[in-house]
Amino acid sequence: MRFISSVLLMLTLLGACAPMAMFASSSGHGYSGLKTDWGTFVAHGNVNALCLTPALRLLIWDFEGHFGQKVVMNSGFRTPWHNASVGGAAASYHTRCMAADFYIPGVEKQRLIAYAMRNSLVGGLGCYPGQRFIHVDVRDRPRGRNQPVTFSGC
């Protein structure tokens, strides 16, 4: 009896830790034709979603859980050569597996930005005019700052 109680308690605790992202939907026309890379929807074949730090993966799951939809990554990890070829900053967090550019089909970009601004997991936020995606990274925020570091149109 004690063993069964222990197993039930352990399953209950593990179940409580399951991220809400597990229940995020990927149905609808916004996902048709998209491929996945390591369990993440990607906008094109040049996206590398393998190298994401645990903090960045948690941040992505947080967005998916909040909006109830899976993200579509436009850019993840970049080699220094790829980063230079797309005009990325020399010290880009993409080259350290700490940044992702993504959108969520059916969710307005302004809603993503608003959520990122109040999300304590977001260290940096980029909002590129004319693009459907936002940039998030998991850098440490400067001391005393309660919003992410913002750049590029935010």
From TrEMBL:
Name of the protein described by the UniProt record: Peptidase M15A C-terminal domain-containing protein
Top-level division of the source organism's lineage: Bacteria
Keywords: Signal
Domain Peptidase M15A C-terminal, first and last residues per copy: 59-137
Transmembrane intervals: none
Listed SUPFAM superfamilies: Hedgehog/DD-peptidase
Keyword Membrane included in the entry's annotation: no
Range of residues in the leader sequence: 1-23
Alphabetized InterPro entries for the sequence: Peptidase_M15A_C, Zn_M74/Hedgehog-like
